Every structure is written in structure tokens, then in C-alpha cells.
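help with this:

***
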Amino acid sequence: MLAEQVIKRPIYLTEKGAKLREENNKYTFEVNLDANKLQIKDAVETLFKVTVRDVRTLVMRGHMRRMGKTYAKTQNWKKAIVTLREGETIDFFEGV
């Protein structure tokens, strides 16, 4: 799987994500549901030219949403919390 297929988008607009980034040098990404931790680590290292120390993943369950008269479930998605080596940052998140 290519690095661009593993990482879908960064998640940086939440207060929790901002706090993790500032205090613990952790960054959050939405990743492919089939990606494992090694693929996520390799993708982050190749795309952003940083050294990854740890990867934690969790599957976010879809919610029930109102669609007209009926209810429908949104899709499940996977979130990865990536810890970088001290002193390294991802410039994509700076100034947000």
C-alpha cells in the first residue's frame, strides 16, 4: 500500500489533538481502515521526513444519523496517534 493511500488526512482541529501536539509531540491522522501500525509508521516517515517513535491506533465507530425520515449509520474509520522523536515536528501542523 502506498504512503498516500495509508494516510487520508490529518486531524488537527480538535482541542485534544492540539493539546497532544503541543505537550507530548503527538500527531493524529485519519488512516486507511486496513492499515497496520508498521504501514502507518513507514507512511509518516516517508511523507513528512521525520522519525516515528510510537504509533497507537483506534477504530472510531460510525454514528447513527438522521437521513430524512429514517436513520443511517456513518462509516467506521481508523485514527492513528503518532508520537515523534523529541525535537522533531511536522510543519503541516504549525500555525494551526
User: Anything to note?
Assistant: The helical segments are 3-6, 15-24, 37-48. Strands lie at 7-11, 26-31, 52-60, 64-67, 70-73, 77-84.
